[in-house]
Amino acid sequence: MQKEKIIIGSDHAGVNLKSKIKLYLLELGYDVFDFGVNSQEPVDYPYIAKDVANKVATGEYNKGILICGTGIGMSITANKIKGIRAVVCSDTTSAKLSRQHNDTNILCFGERIIGEYLAKDICKIWLETEFMKDRHLRRVNLIE
């Protein structure tokens, strides 16, 4: 089974965790594109979030992961793009339910909020959980 194409991006506050998550996803067999950044030099996160979200919205990538200090700014920005349902997750239950019920296509979290091992668990669960459709499809269509 071919794994999904994942795009991952961060700002300067999420660069360390992004590099660890990227390696983890590659180990799991995902096709991962690192959109950057790759240094702790300050950048404006909305540019990264918007570009990653557009690439997911157009179908160039199946899903996206955005990391900043908290995940909040990335999520707010990504959700401005039509077709994007970005979620900030700091726990595995929210990651699972966001996929099952909301068909989220961008996962956001913060390097200043969660540690490496929890971030890896969240990513794995989020990427492996299927959208349940049924009554949830109607609600996702209402969001759009």
Structure description:
The protein is α/β, with parallel strands linked by helices and 144 residues long. The chain has one domain: Sugar-phosphate isomerase, RpiB/LacA/LacB (Ribose 5-phosphate Isomerase B, Chain: A), CATH 3.40.1400.10. Helix content is 47%, strand content 18%. The chain has six helices and five strands, in the order E-H-E-H-E-H-E-H-E-H-H. Strands 2-1-3-5-4 form a five-stranded parallel sheet, with helices on both faces. The model has no long low-confidence stretch (mean pLDDT 95).
A few lines on this structure:
This protein is of the alpha/beta class and 144 residues long.
- Tell me the number of structural domains: 1
Q: How far is the N terminus from the C terminus? A: 30 Å
CATH-scheme architecture: 3-Layer(aba) Sandwich
CATH fold-level assignment: Ribose 5-phosphate Isomerase B, Chain: A
Mean pLDDT: 95
Residue stretches low in confidence (pLDDT < 50, at least 5 long) are: none
What's the helix count?
Answer: 6
How much β-strand is present in the residues?
15-25%
Taken in chain order, the helices and strands follow as EHEHEHEHEHH
Oligomer kind: single chain
Biggest sheet: strands, sense, closure? 5 strands, parallel
